[in-house]
Amino acid sequence: MSYYLTKLLPGLKEYVASADLRSDSDNGSYLLSVRRAVASYRHFENFKRDKAYNKILEHVSREDGQIYLDVLKSRDDGILEAARPTLLQSDVIGNPRKYDYAGESLSPTTLRYLKVASDLKRLFGGQIGSKIAEIGGGYGGQALVCDDVFKTEEYHIFDLPDVTRLVSRYLESFLMHGSYVTHTLNAAQVDSYDLIISNYAFSEVPKAVQSAYVRKVLAQSKRGYLTMNSGKSDHAGREGAKLTLAELESMLPPFEIYDEHPVTAPHNYIIVWGHEPGATL
Ligand SMILES: C[S@@+](CC[C@H](N)C(=O)[O-])C[C@H]1O[C@@H](n2cnc3c(N)ncnc32)[C@H](O)[C@@H]1O
């Protein structure tokens, strides 16, 4: 359906998957906002402020952004300095909401991507490997930060078909150090990766889809970093439809659980494997 038609007929909904295979973000309006950004440069220039898009991405609060920045400054691990060109570069595309942090205008979402990069550096001692995969890569913001900070060679992004087009449009706006490849789950073959990343994404797809990702991507990955917003039995709303923590323990490589900081929803946690013993966050 053309995006012009969706502008004329508000209330229209479009989905990728059949009802029982839909992720939390495949909500009928997210896909339309992604298609608008892919189809028209005018929308692409402002997609990070699209209301339907903000229900799924680009909704990090000013306060959480401040905490990410404080963590980055207190760790003093060079990520902030190394990524400063990326931070500014990434934010020229899509017109993100920015806030004033001690005189600097920064996007809190980009600060979160930097905090994740800092976590990876701490957990894996700076050795994340050269072949990285991310499930649910959004528009490619984490990919861009990892490319800049770690000089990753191959970065594989798994997402919905229309979203992979937005990833390409976004990443092609920059000059990357390494290469990126986009995949949909069905089109991908079983493969192994040095590190698999998934933040608020693997935990948002239904059980059957999670199981397929475990088989095709996660089980063979040497290292893992997954920010989870499902799996704990007392997590309201998503239980039953997603793999439980006990099921994940039987399916994934042996992992350790870390707290998410700042915690962005009750019962969130981070699954990590392949890290240095005793590494803290
Ligand atoms: C809440 S967003 C998180 C995005 C990104 N990881 C971040 O932290 O900003 C969820 C992501 O999962 C993606 N997604 C939805 N269904 C998916 C599926 N079946 N396979 C892979 N990704 C999916 C969405 O398109 C979106 O990029």
Overall description:
The structure is a single chain. The protein folds into 2 domains: 12-54, no CATH class; 62-273, Rossmann fold, CATH 3.40.50. Helix content is 38%, strand content 14%. The chain has a 7-stranded mixed β-sheet, with helices on both faces. The protein has 11 helices and 9 strands. It is globular, with a radius of gyration of 18 Å. Strand 6, helix 10 (207-218) and strand 7 (224-228) form a beta-alpha-beta unit. The longest helix is centred in the middle third of the chain and has 17 residues, at 108-124. With 281 residues, it is of the alpha/beta class. The chain has helices spanning 3-8, 30-39, 41-44, 51-54, 62-75, 79-90, 108-124, 141-150, 161-171, 207-218, 245-251, and strands at 99-101, 104-106, 131-135, 154-158, 179-183, 195-199, 224-228, 256-258, 269-273. The mean pLDDT is 92. S-adenosylmethionine binds at residues 23, 25-26, 56-57, 135-138, 158-160, 163, 185, 199-201, 204-205, 209.
